């Protein structure tokens, strides 16, 4: 069981490392940026807003893999 959890964690980590830069470039390309217009914003430069897409992709894909691997073992 711990091996399955470790594999799912490592796959999610590797996917995060690979997919996130592509989603940032895609957000810059389509203009999905959070541009600071007043003093209430913490960041000083434009920040991409689509990084959540890569988080959702990682979570649901590897959650699905982990659940399916446990179902087939029973």
Q: What is the structure about, briefly put?
A:
The protein has 74 residues and is mainly alpha-helical.
- Helical fraction: over 70%
Order of helices and strands: HEEH
Total beta strand runs: 2
- Strands of the widest sheet, in order across it, are 1-2
Structural classification: mainly alpha
Structure description:
With 74 residues, the chain is mainly alpha-helical. It has one domain. The chain is 70% helix and 5% strand. The chain is built from 2 helices and 2 strands. The chain has helices at residues 2-30, 51-73, and strands at 33-34, 47-48. A two-stranded antiparallel sheet has the order 1-2. Helix 1 (2-30) runs antiparallel to helix 2. The two termini are 12 Å apart. The mean pLDDT is 79.
What is the topology?
Blueprint: H1 2-30, E1 33-34, E2 47-48, H2 51-73
Antiparallel strand pairs: 1-2
Task: Give me some keywords for this one.
5% strand, mainly alpha, 2 helices, 74 residues, two-stranded antiparallel ribbon
